[in-house]
Design goal:
- It is elongated, with a radius of gyration of 24 Å.
- The longest helix is centred in the last third of the chain and has 16 residues.
- Helices cover 22% and strands 19% of the residues.
- The chain has 262 residues and is of the alpha+beta class.
- The chain folds into two domains: 121 residues, Tumour Suppressor Smad4, CATH 2.60.200.20; 108 residues, no CATH class.
- It is built from six helices and eleven strands.
- The strands form two sheets. A six-stranded antiparallel β-sheet has the order 2-1-11-10-7-8. It has a five-stranded mixed β-sheet with strand order 4-3-5-6-9, with no helix packed on it.
- This is FHA domain-containing protein.
- Keywords: Phosphoprotein.
Amino acid sequence: MPLSASLACGVAPSTPGVLHARTVTGELSAPPRQGLTVRFGRGEKPDVDLGVGVDDLRVSRRHGELTYRAGQWWLRNTGQQLVRLPRGRMMHLSSEPVPLTTGYTPLFVKGSGYREHLVELYVAGHDDQGPVSRRRAETARPQTWALDDDERLLLVVLGQRYLLYEEDPRPLTYAAAAKQFAYLRPDAGWNERKIEYRIEAVRRRLHRTGFRYPLIHDTSQGRPGDNSLLHNLVKGLVESTTLVPPDLDLMEDDAAWPDSAG
């Protein structure tokens, strides 16, 4: 069913299942009607209903589509470049369609060089007025997690590269951190094993609080052989502003420390 014909029927934006879609070049709303398909890409109407990446030749003229069936909107990549979804999920031309959940979903179309083109999607739920302006509302504070003084210092040392906002940072090894603590807190006895034990306790505690990234080993997949869980912990704490660059001041006399390359 053509999108224009379906829109002409008129459906309230708050009706459950209504799809709102927006890019820098346009926006639309589409009712939850069986078989209705909304297409987006670099091309022009009637090939696409919503333009995205219109000046980028890496974006396909018809790069993706959203089809309403079985009570949900289903996203499919029809372009040559990847589409990136939240939590790093990628979709290829050969990927199976995925259903959208109620609420907001951003997706990014890979373009030329480092360009990524944003498509904002919003599916209205029950008792939902759809996306509304909140320009005058108070800003919601980011969710942060409580750390005691020792935990904060440990994580600042382990995650100092993240707090410097380096490209593709990795945490220090426990051995490298222990060497730095030998200078920073020589009487505290922070050896490699003690640091690992304390960080594991932090991971287990925050795992129960709805932390954004996995913090516990998935036993069904076997124990990972790298420090991916420590990476998840530090990354989540930095992104949430639980750890911030001024925390680096906790590391005194760092000029006298050994090389922290780990």
